């Protein structure tokens, strides 16, 4: 758990979505307000810890799969607090750009990952696609395909901010042949509980908007969706050697899309 000494510029009294996620995953980079809010969510959906692990295990399988498909550059937006199995740990020799808009995430990421070969940490906001892509171009070769990761993030973008429009803007900016890796919490996966969870997040740094499968599908317009399509994270190309299928928690839908080469 983080010391109670709060670095300047950090609002420790407001539950923070990155630090709450860290708490679900068993991390120590969180303050009392984060833990209190996270405990409220855990009281509503105790399986959220397993769900977070399943989403991260999906991310790792997707990254491995795309590496085998020849991708060697990854742009991970909303990368979160460094936790086991970050993208650069899953693959050797690829370039990875981690982007987040949270000061604590950026400080920790720079301290822990800044010297890892091939890794760059950039401040950026998902909702500003042109800026994020322009900054990423300092490091990534955008004349070749990349993989864009937006994992467990879009439900922190409100309807008014047009999440589908944001994803489509990235689609148009990505080099031909690129991939997108998406997960998103769906209300259908937590019947009668989504409103209670949203109520907890209303006091956090970002509100929480779970979205139905049909809406998630529209995010992927213009991409070819790889097999097995849009599924729960545990169902996406399960790998017997890193099997998480017995961990309960199925709130995230996921998919990998391919932009036509
Ligand atoms: C739930 S965590 C997911 C972390 C990581 N992607 C994972 O799956 O383990 C969401 C992350 O997105 C970041 N975030 C939230 N809104 C963002 C935005 N508009 N732009 C960039 N990052 C954002 C948060 O700071 C947090 O680190």
Give structural notes.
By secondary structure, the protein is of the alpha/beta class. The protein has helices at residues 17-24, 32-44, 48-68, 87-90, 103-113, 129-136, 163-173, 194-201, 213-219; strands at 73-77, 95-100, 119-123, 147-150, 179-185, 224-225, 231-232, 252-258. Strands 1, 2, 3, 4, 5, 6, 7 and 8 form an 8-stranded mixed β-sheet that branches. The longest helix is centred in the N-terminal third of the chain and has 21 residues, at 48-68. It is globular. The termini are far apart. The model has no long low-confidence stretch (mean pLDDT 92). Bound molecules: S-adenosylmethionine.
The CATH homologous superfamily corresponds to Vaccinia Virus protein VP39
Strand fraction equals: 5-15%
Residue windows where pLDDT falls under 50 for at least 5 positions: none
Calculate the terminal CA-CA distance, rounded to whole Å. Answer: 46 Å
The largest sheet is:
8 strands, mixed
The CATH architecture term is 3-Layer(aba) Sandwich
- CA radius of gyration is 17 Å
SSE string: HHHEHEHEHEHEHHEEE
Structural class: alpha/beta
Average pLDDT level = 92
